Amino acid sequence: MFDIVPESAIVEGRATDAYFLRTEEALEHAGRNPTVVAEVTADQFPTGEFELFAGVADAARLFEGLDVDVDAIPEGTLFDGGPVMRIEGPYLEFCRMETSLLGFLSHPSALATAALEARRAALETSLLSFGARHVHPSSAGMVDRSALLAGFDGFSHVAAGDMLEREPSGTMPHALMVCFGPGNQEDAWRAFDEAVDEDVPRIALCDTYDDEVDEALRAAELGFDSVRLDTTGSRRGDFRHIIREVRWELDVEGHEDVDIFVSGGITPEAIRELDDVADGFGVGSFITNADPVDFALDIVEIEGDPAAKRGKLSGVKEVYRTPDGGHHIALADEPGPEDGDPLMEPLVRDGEIVAEFDLNEAIQQAAADARRVGFGSES
Ligand code: PCP
């Protein structure tokens, strides 16, 4: 019914570029199936720009039942150059999986990295992922999982909630306000309050028809816990001033406990600028507009000998986190840096997934590693 590649095609390796199937034909024709080691790498050497590794569980499932061993840095680890994953086995075992493998890693890692930039801009403030509307609906769970991995507090998408076994968050859309019409905001807010489950936070959208201060005071008078300001760009002017004014007037009227949530084009810069006057942010396009990480899969060893195409580094490698928060790349059979922690861990052995995937652990790992490498601390 929709333009969606079925899961069965991914598992069977048909979610691939045609040239991999031609490669299989050519190798089979020639009777060649070398045992290789291939590595997934974005940058060969550190660039000074860390990224957050995500999508590992989906990637691991590609190798179930194949005669391969796979190692990877754990989900939630930051990386800056060098391999994030290593596959060892007869090349024909995994040749056709490359396209899906890179896709499973590239997009979530990019979104998680962008979300981490937002998270590091405001460590304590509530952040919700609002980006599902910008992507194919079949990817919404991946978007919101990536945001959670980076330390977001929640997300808005219902089916993502089903997938992640977490309750979606959210407020109300302008459509609800418009359905009641100008001057009738109280009717819309009251209908919401009377209809929705009492566990749902009472957050009134306060920018639809009238001044934000006016609508916020009216919503507070009705008993709403919070207001959301999503002032459209063309009317925004000095958004920080608008938020401060709303805060001031709410306080003057005795509504000090009414929180202010802000959304619409929110970036890390905006979060830093507004963090002291807003109680929470909804972030969408900043996450979903992130360019996919430019991962590639390259053979680095063939039948036990180092190999590489031009521009890539031959030999099986290990990556290390050094005590100063650095990312160090070395040949795997050579000693690593002093006190460096090797980051690669077994993911698949003989076609069986041996790693465990726990999103909460990965969230903790991402936060700890971000602190360790100083991610976002320059800004
Ligand atoms: C908010 C905002 C963006 C949505 C969230 C995603 O929507 O206007 O369109 O944020 P982003 O700008 O960071 O991607 P609502 O106010 O809920 O949208 P609507 O006007 O459709 O009710």
Overall CATH architecture of the largest domain = Alpha-Beta Barrel
**What fold name stands as the CATH topology of the largest domain?**
nicotinate phosphoribosyltransferase
Span of the ends, CA to CA: 46 Å
Output the structural class.
alpha/beta
* CATH homologous superfamily assignment of the largest domain: nicotinate phosphoribosyltransferase
Small ligands present: ligand PCP
Number of H- or I-type helical stretches:
14
Number of strands: 18
Regions with pLDDT < 50 over 5+ consecutive residues?
Answer: none
Mean pLDDT across residues: 97
Instruction: State the domain count.
Output: 2
Shape call: elongated
Tell me the strand percentage band.
Answer: 15-25%
Structural notes for this entry:
It contains 14 helices and 18 strands. With 379 residues, it is α/β, with parallel strands linked by helices. The chain has 2 domains: 7-111 and 291-373, nicotinate phosphoribosyltransferase, CATH 3.20.140; 122-288, Alpha-Beta Barrel (TIM Barrel), CATH 3.20.20.70. A 7-stranded antiparallel β-sheet has the order 13-12-1-5-3-17-18. It has a 6-stranded parallel β-sheet with strand order 7-6-11-10-9-8. Helix 6 (140-149) links the parallel strand 6 (126-129) and strand 7 (154-155). Helix 5 crosses helix 6 and helix 10 (212-221) runs parallel beside helix 11. The radius of gyration is 24 Å and the shape is elongated. The structure holds ligand PCP. Ligand PCP binds at residues 130-131, 173-175, 230, 263-266, 282-286.
